Amino acid sequence: MGSVPESSAAAGPGSTYDPDDPSAVVVPIAASTARRGAAHDTTAAAPTSLQVLRSLDSGPRGLLEEQAGERLARYGENTLPAWRPVSWPRRFLRSLRDPFTSVLLCLGLVSAAVASWGTACVTLVLVVVSCLLRSAEEHRADRSTAALRELVATTATVLRRTGPDAAPHARELPVGELVPGDVIRLGPGDLVPADVRLLRASGLTVHQSALTGESVPVAKHPVDSPPGLRSAGDGSGAEEGPFARPELCFQGSSVASGSGTAVVTATGAETRFAAAYDGSARRRGASAFDRSVHGISWTLIRFMLLTPPLVLMANAALRGRGLETLPFAVAVAVGLTPEMLPVIVTTALARGASLLAGNHGVIVKRLPALHDLGAIDVLCVDKTGTLTQDRPVLESSLNASGRPGPEALHWAAVNALWTLQLADLPAPDALDEAVLDAAEEREEPLSAYDGVAALPFDPVRRLATAVVRRPGKLGVHTLVTKGAVEAVLERCVLDEAERTRLRELAARESANGLRLLAVARAERPARPRPYTTADERGLTFLGFVTLRDALTPSAADALDALKDRGIAVKVLTGDDPGTVARTCRDLGLDPGEVMSADRIDALPDEALARAADRVTVFARCTPEHKARIVSALRTAGRTTGFLGDGVNDLPAMHAADVGICPRNAVDVARETADVVLAEKDLAAIDHAITAGRHSSGNIATYLRITLSSNLGNVIAMLAAGLMLPFLPMLPAQVLVQNLCFDVAQLAFAFDRPASEVLRWPTVLRPRDFLHFITGFGLLNATADLATFAVLAVALHGSATSGGQDAFHSGWFTENLLTQALVMLLLRTGGRVAGGRGGGPLRVAACGLAVVGLLLPLTPLGGLLGMSALPPLYYLLLATVLALYAYGLRAARTRYERKWSRS
Fold first, then answer.
1. How many angstroms separate the CA atoms of 37 and 713, rounded?
2. pLDDT at 129 over 90
3. What is the Cα–Cα distance from 456 to 437, expressed in whole angstroms?
4. Which of 114, 528, 604, 755 is found 20 to 30 A from 137 (Cα to Cα)?
5. Are strands 183-186 and 218-219 parallel, antiparallel or unpaired?
6. Is residue 878 helix, strand or coil?
């Protein structure tokens, strides 16, 4: 394209060009964001470069410094919206929204209202500790993430003028100082600093994977004709939307090859990059952790609301006791509550997050996301950068008959080598690198040729030509051409039948997921005058070079590991169905039926939910398709994680239970993600999932053991309160017992669960917990009632003051001993309870047993209303505990068999 004359027509500095509305030449800048998502009108005539420059009150020589300063003051810096840091008080108060923490806070206030100061103080201290732990860990994660922030680009080459008649000169300016109307230069490796319209370009290709997910660089060049008049070969793809338009480049993309000059059309919050990250997209539904915690919380709240009235009514009706039993009723409700749950949940998750950050460089920004990682049963990933390395490798070299042969690769390598050297390209593109690497491995004799001229790749011609001298061919030049299949075939001497056969051969290879380069050659008499594109005629077709995406070395093993952990991997990509299916097969992942975007659009939500559960690969997906598929999976009851790194992945990351991105993802993706990986590697996700299951397994074990024990104690307390003429345990004794339980239960946060826990997703299902705690709670209550009988025999049924003290001592001791047994035998099941591991729990259980046996014998026991017990009691209690341990093992074995079958 020739130079564009500078416009002197003033459209006013308060206007800009909106690439989504080609029919509108002059558009207020402030209005462009509101229309950013509008559909592209392919029937309207697109404005020319001259019209765009006029609408921006700019020209090809750039803005005046004075103009740029005014626009910077008016429209602000070219920076993305950023998260504001959350203050400590707000973070602390936000922690109170946790359901368990809220329940504890209410119980503490109720205890204070009935003057049960000991219970109130302990409960409120636990609330404060839990909130502080959670706030501190989230603050640490935010600081780690803030250290990863990077700008999309740091500087840009801008043409600016000091006066109306002054010559423009190129300056390196910070990206934040760019304004609409600035003329910038783009070169290989540059990050596109804003949304721009191309004025000139030479061999320009751009990576748009951060915006579209498409792994192949897209050819870009100026276009000044209306969409309907563009040639079929210009690659414009106007009907596919703004990202496919060759004259537009967007912030968040990067230059793969070539160079260009462009005018800035949108900056800052006006860009598509920023529009994909608006505030409305940040709202996310309840995660797996939220759903689980709320379900279990409401189950416990119902129990706790029902227990005190039952205690009061039973004592009033059968024993004639009044409000003097209210502290005891509150103590029973507190006894049912897993007071340490907020502390243990926060400690277990924070410990897992710290280990992940220290050992694997994985940052967990939202602590509950670690539990969600452990609960994931579907992981959605894209292809590029996860399963493949975003670079091609040679698959085969085929002759014109479609059979393997070295000739096509040899001449393709000659073309790549001399095009690179004679065209003075800064670096070969990815396809040329793959061809040269393969030729080097096969030791092709490329140095025997002398280069004469080169016609580099052009996105309109879609091919490149090198002219060389061959050894022993005096007076002859050899033209070697390679490029897109159709572009090369139309320049070869072929009859129509042969051309059709070659097209069908290329189509079959493409359908198998391969990229093709066609290679042709021609002999020309040597001449001194330059070669032009007109010489690319009358070629002899040599064959095809086929390439495939290079696989990520660790991907196959990581996919196997995820499968072993019960996780289904879904591939959501913008690539061609054949390409992604081939990648999956090469990695050992059966692609099955590949679903394309057109079929996704045709399905209602219910049908898509069923299909998403069945289908493994989704191709040609837009960001909206990815988000809809993830939402459909969650609707089907699956816990989903999504691994992405670009703006196009943001909707799906928001829709998933856990959003995951690598450290080198675009800035907004890192801010959105719940988990940030050191690298975009499935093996790193496997480590994160293992840590999540580790923490979740400890939390689930704590909940099962504590709730079943607490339920058993409450049932026994209610029964004893109805059978005995005195309170079965004093409120102070209940408080001390709970304190002992709480201290011992801290060991759950530091336990190492058995390998069985790590094999399957860990989900806290309220119904499962209800079945577990009901069965084992009744078993625990049976042991307590048996202890009552033992105490009746040992104490001869005495109801005197001394007998009451002894009864309190006996039940206090039995409660702590049974709790110690439960911690050991229900940790991972009877058959592994005696194996290695569980060190912290063993120490805690032994300490609990020692306190239970010795505390009644100490002066503190006397102060608490307890006394020494006769030796006969300990002998009979040992028998009860032995039977209880046997019952626990048998019940656990039966439970495991039942749930393994289900």
1. 61
2. no
3. 19
4. 755
5. unpaired
6. helix
Nearest to 626 by CA among 639, 636, 638, 647: 647
For the annotated catalytic residues, the residue numbers are 382
Phi-psi region of 545 (alpha: psi -120 to 50; beta: other; left: phi over 0): beta
Spatial distance between the Cα atoms of 480 and 708, rounded to a whole number of angstroms: 79
Listed residue (275, 281, 279) closest to 18, CA to CA: 275
Task: Give 695-750 pLDDT, tens digit per residue.
Answer: 888 888 888 888 888 788 778 877 776 677 777 777 778 778 877 887 888 888 88
Residue 722: how many other CB atoms lie within 10 Å? 14
Q: How far apart are CA 319 and CA 455, in angstroms?
A: 103
Q: How far is 162 from 168, CA to CA, in rounded Å?
A: 8
Helix ranges (DSSP H) in 153-228: 209-212
Check the CA dihedral 15-33-192-417 and report its sign. Answer: negative
Measure the CA–CA gap between 571 and 61, rounded to whole angstroms.
46
Amino acid residing at 669: A
pLDDT digits (tens, 9 = 90+) for 331-378: 666 666 776 777 788 788 888 888 888 888 888 888 888 888 888 999
Give dist(CA 855, CA 867) in Å, integer. Answer: 9
- The β-bridge partners of 392 are 549
Helices (H) and strands (E) in the chain, counts: 31, 24
Give the Cα-Cα-Cα angle 238, 239, 243 (nearest 5 degrees).
55
Q: What is the pLDDT of residues 412-447, one digit of tens each?
A: 999 999 988 887 666 667 888 899 999 988 888 888
- Answer whether 702's CB lies under 8 Å from 828's CB: no
pTM of the entire predicted model: 0.69
HEC sequence for 284-327: CCCCHHHHHHHHHHHHHHHHHHHHHHHHHHHHHHHCCCCHHHHH
* Cα atoms in the Cβ-side hemisphere of radius 13 Å centred on 484: 14
**Distance, C-alpha 555 to centroid of its chain:** 17
Q: Which amino acid is at 737?
A: Q
- Cα gap 152→340, rounded to integer Å: 44
Q: How far apart are CA 264 and CA 199, in angstroms?
A: 10
* Amino acid found at 62: G
Q: Give me the amino acid identity at 98.
A: D
